[in-house]
Every structure is written in C-alpha cells, then in structure tokens.
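Q: What would this chain look like folded?
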Amino acid sequence: MSCCVSGAEFPDTVALRALNDEIMLASGRVGEGLRQTDPPVPAIHCGGCIQKIEKTLAELPGVEHARVNLSTKRVSIRWHAAMTPPPFIEALNRIGYGAHLYDTAGDGKDKTQTELVRALAVAGFAASNIMLLSVSVWSGAEPATRDLFHWLSALIAFPALVYSGRIFFRSPWQALRHGRTNMDVPISIGVLLAFGLSLYETIHHGQHAYFDASITLLFFLLIGRTLDHVMREKARAAVRGLVRLSPRGATVLRADGSRDYLPVNEIEPGMRILLAAGERVPVDAVVTEGVSDIDCAIATGESAPQRAGPGSPLQAGTMNLSGPLAIVASARAEASFLAEMVRLMEAAEGGRARYRRLADRAAQLYSPVVHATAFLTFLGWMAATGDWHRAIGIAIAVLIITCPCALGLAVPMVQVMAARRLFERGMLLKDGGALERLAEIDTVVFDK
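A: My prediction, written as structure tokens:
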C-alpha cells in the first residue's frame, strides 16, 4: 500500500504520536496550564551533567522549568499543557543522556551498585598484585628481572583497566561524541596516558613504569564513587519510605454493587472505595459511611488517633485503625497529599542553595581549565628541558591530582543527607537554601 493513500501515515509520524501519548500518560498537572514530567536519566553523575541537561531543556519551546535531582537521577520538566509535549526525550538522547519515561527497575536489584562493587574488587586485586611486583623493582632488581616484572604488571593492569575503567570511560566517550566535556574526561585521559607511558617504558626496557599508579588511582576513585552511590541510596530511603505508605491498589465498589480491585493509579475522583481496618488510605478522599479512628501522624504529626465519620476528609497515606469505612475519592493518586509530600522531598534534595550553586559553577569551569593547564604544563616543560618524556609525565600528574569529584558532589551530598535526617525527625525540608538560613535563627516558635 502506498503511503500516499488516504489514512496512511509515515512511520515516524506514528512513532512521534505514540511517544507524545506516553508523555501525556506519564505526566501530571501541576498548575494552571502546566504539566510536569519526571523522566529517569541514569547517566547523571556530576555537576557538569546537571548544568548541561538543564541548559538544553530550558532552550526547548514550551518548557517552563527544568530541574535535575542528582539523588534520584530524575529530571523534573514543567511544560505548557496547551502545547504539544516538548521533545525532551530526543533532546536528552542527542546530548548523550539516555532517558526514558518509566523506571521499571525501581523495586529490583541495584545493578549500579553491583557493577561498582565488582569493578572495585577487580581494581583492588590488580592494584595489590602490581604493587607487590613494584616493591621488588624498587628494591633494585636486575634489568632482566625488572623487565619481567614490568611485563607481568602490564598483563595484570590491562584487563583491570578495561573492566574497572569502563565505569569512568563511558561518560567521557558520550561527552566527547557530543562535543562537550565533563569531570571524568581528565581522569580518563590521565589514567590512559599513565598506562600508555608505562607500556612504552616496558617495551623500551625503561627503569620506571607506572602501572601501579594508574590502577591504584582507579581503585581509590572507585571507592569514592561506590561510597557516593551507597550514601545516595540511603538518602533516597526517605522518599521511598513515603512511596511505600501508599497501597498498590484499593477495592472499588461499582454502581451495580460489584467490587473491583484497581491499581491506585487507576482510581479516579468520585469512585467509591471500601477501606478495611488496618489499610492505608490510597488517595485523598471523604468518608461517606462508617466511623473509625485514623492515624494521621504522617500528615499532622499528632500521635493520638483522630475520629473520622461521614463527611470527614482523609489524606492519602493515613491509616484506618479500628473500623471499616466507605470513602469517595476526591483526587487522583498523583494529585494526593502523599504525592505532594514526595515531590517536596525530591525538591528539597534537588534544590539549589547558594553554596551549591557556587559549587556547580566551579565544577562547570573545571574541565576546560584543567585541560588547558595540563597542556600548558607540557609545553612549558618541553620548552625548558626539551625532554618530552618528562614533560608528558608532569602533564599526566596535573590531570590526576586535580580530580574534582569532591567539589561537585560534597555540597549536594550534605544537602541530601540533611534532608533525609530532618525527615526522619518529622521535619519536611521544602528548600535547600533553608539549611543555610538555619545558622541565622535565634528564635523558634511552635504552633501546635
């Protein structure tokens, strides 16, 4: 059949329409004329990623606001509902950050942590064995023995570099392919140059090789990245704990008297729900039949149960304690009180305090400055000594010792952990800048 036949559509047009339909289903209304979509972007890992993503999305027509949450690795995108959904998935893929609409692995095994631990174990094993061989070389081994140990070190270092180094090499490869840099670029260049220079020395029977330095650097960097990932997963426990307060579904009473168990996301306002004792309220609702005690601690902080009867409003996440109730849903799951609390927690973790904005700007400038400094160092030592071997060794040292991970991650990590600790003590942080203003507080007033 020809594509010119009436009713036929180009495949790209069909795919685009399907994608737009999926975006509409995955988004929710957040204000007058605005919708919000929160696609997971697993490749986010540093301040440079945040700057690039937010800048790219802000330039799309129809996008009102874009904010990256490094802890949850999601991007909150607010866009005008009257327009066709902006092509943010394509824009993110174009700059090297694979994005999707649904996080299907949210409740599964943490594959990232498993990958990091395995890479860390391989790097640690290789670094320790290469270091043992290096001790013999440093002790004054004969030239033949020294060359043998250098070759053995190379045989151990190469597979470790390929397997463990891929954690760092993937990100620079994607960045350079799309004409940008990030904080992993100088790290990767430094490690590869150190290995390459060591291999050159080994082939030409040189006295010094640096296989131990390149693999040990990978080992320590992987320790930092693994701990960072573990701490972020712990910090996300507060948000996940809130999500678990919402049941997966509820028993809906139909007009004909039949009962259906529906997923919570399919419950619409006006549906009549049967709520047994011991169940949590799935969505914001109003009691129509029955009397019971409700645990409202999640919403009000009150430890004593509250009595609820016909006409009483109930908030999602509160628990029915003593008797069965019939309730009528007053809001969808994504517009409920509990969903709003989750959004506030994620906003607090992803908010930009003054010091965090300063750290992000400094991290953004890091990569070009360090590359330029290393290149000028190489040229300077070449001009001064004419020894390219010494010049490239010093340039590699400049790349390695200026690892900036603490600069881009320390401030966000403090903010994420503080938001989690405050939540565990019953305080909800709505803005990251509030942490900085805490130092200026001299009076606290409690209204209870």
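The radius of gyration is 28 Å.
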